[in-house]
Amino acid sequence: MSATSARSRRAKALDEPASPWAARRSVGRALKRDAVILAAARAFRERGYHNTSLDDLAASLKVTKPTLYLYVPGKEAILFECFLAGIAPILATLDDCEKAGGPARERLFAFIRGYAAAIVGDFGWCMLRAEDQHLGAGLSRRIKLLKAGIDKRMRALIEAGVGDGSIRACDTKMTAFALAGALNWMGHWYREDARLKPQEIADRFIDVFNRGLRGSD
Amino acid sequence: MSATSARSRRAKALDEPASPWAARRSVGRALKRDAVILAAARAFRERGYHNTSLDDLAASLKVTKPTLYLYVPGKEAILFECFLAGIAPILATLDDCEKAGGPARERLFAFIRGYAAAIVGDFGWCMLRAEDQHLGAGLSRRIKLLKAGIDKRMRALIEAGVGDGSIRACDTKMTAFALAGALNWMGHWYREDARLKPQEIADRFIDVFNRGLRGSD
Q1: What is the mean pLDDT of residues A44-72?
Q2: How far is CA A64 from CA A19, A23, A27, A80, in A?
Q3: Minimal Cα–Cα distance from B71 to chain A, Å?
Q4: Whether B175 contacts chain A with CB within 8 A
Q5: Which residues in chain B are contacts of A170 at CB distance < 8 A?
Q6: For residues B155 and B173, is the Cβ–Cβ distance under 8 A?
Q7: C-alpha torsion angle, residues A38, A40, A42, A45 (rounded to 10)
Q8: What is the pTM assigned to this prediction?
Q9: Residue A167, beta-bridge partner list
Q10: pLDDT digits (tens, 9 = 90+) for A73-126
Q11: Which of A50, A103, A174 sits opposite B205 (nearest CB)?
Q12: Is B183 on the interface with A (CB under 8 A)?
């Protein structure tokens, strides 16, 4: 290999953009598809769904729009994939909390920690906001159903706590909404440079929801 | 007056649309402007800000787009007016709660009741979502500042509670975020046909935040 071509390769490596197309031709289809979903999730969060075009997305990945279409059928479908990527860790946490032993209040709090981590992740925004983007009726219905499923399982955890005595009698539906609201709001205000890490925020929330605010009076 | 013209006037009255232009020519400018803001707030909530054009809005009020421009300078300015209409009752509640006597915890709970009523009102959606619509830098900054002001005053109420002993020592910033999240989430899930009225929901939330969830174990 000539010194010139080694230099040229080194220069190219330094300049390598964060796109699996430019990076390595051998990268598999699934990885490339994941790269589209992740780039889209970041663009949607930053600029809004309606302000992000497939052209923007193709440009950010340094590919052409026809190339994008090899991996995804369109913008709505990408948002739905982002939504699925957003709820996946939440569903996994729910599985864990449902299977775990011990008082349901502790399992609810473990769920709060998992949810907080998910909501501030790359797909948190899409998980929260996909429903508000006025998608087609079919996708909207699937998103609503999947979210309702999470809500239902969260409420079941609270009910289990009332059942095993670890949670006092309360309006379980409104309690689930209050908890979900506090957690979802994190997706709105949380920034990566925040003073507290997601787990620390979750612990502050758990403290409030566990003991309440009532003082000594 | 002939019988024919009386009949024609009566028919017209029955058919009268919900637009102050069609209704009475003497209706003042401020009322007409308010009608634009209200119609816009409802359209934004229903169809989304980006999916609502000034043409749609003009059509819903049965006026032309040039007529709209007599009252408002453009869509962004309308959204900002909707935002202001949304925070007005919240600011009024804060004034009341700050002026009132008694333990700060009680005043915080009064604020929660006022906020819940505001968030489910016509302008609640715009109050919550204006910031996410990628408006110009000037408007975005004003919205952020006004919201930050509400957050600061809410936190001051919690701090006053810690000071007077009615609220136990807690992370006041995270507590304010948890409360705001629970309340703002109402704007997302609440529907007018809901089983509980906003005040009843606020009372359930207050119960959770006051006493916490911890059971007897």
Answers
A1: 92
A2: 12, 16, 17, 21
A3: 27
A4: yes
A5: 204, 207-208, 213
A6: yes
A7: -140
A8: 0.84
A9: B214
A10: 999 999 999 999 999 999 999 999 999 999 999 999 999 999 999 999 999 999
A11: A174
A12: yes
CB contact under 8 A, A180 and B177: no
Please answer yes or no on whether B168 and A210 come within 8 Å at the CB atom. Answer: no
The whole-angstrom distance between residue A67's C-alpha and the CA centroid of its chain comes to 26
Residues of A in contact with B215 (CB under 8 A): 105, 161-162, 165-168
Structure tokens at B143: 């919205």
Nearest to B171 among A180, A184, A204 (CB): A204
CA distance to A33, A104, A166, A210, B214, per residue, from B217 (Å): 49, 11, 5, 12, 8
At B116, which amino acid appears? A
The tokens for A87 are 């709820």
pLDDT at B15 over 50: no
DSSP symbols for chain B: --HHHHHHHHHHHHT--S-HHHH-TT--HHHHHHHHHHHHHHHHHHH-STT--HHHHHHHTTS-HHHHTTT-S-HHHHHHHHHHHHHHHHHHHHHHHHHS-S-HHHHHHHHHHHHHHHHTSTTHHHHHHGGGG---HHHHHHHHHHHHHHHHHHHHHHHHHHHHTSB-S--HHHHHHHHHHHHHHHHHH--TT-SS-HHHHHHHHHHHHHH-SB---
Touching check for A133 and chain B: CB below 8 Å? yes
Contact indicator for B208, A175 with CB cutoff of 8 Å: yes
- Cβ–Cβ < 8 Å for B19, B63: yes
Q: How confident is the model at residue A30 (pLDDT cuts 50, 70, 90)?
A: confident
- Chain A nearest-CA distance from B160, in A, is 12
CB A86 within 8 A of CB A118: yes
Pick from A166, A185, A215: CB nearest B165: A215
B180 part of contact set with chain A, CB < 8 Å:
yes
Nearest Cα residue in chain B from A102: B217
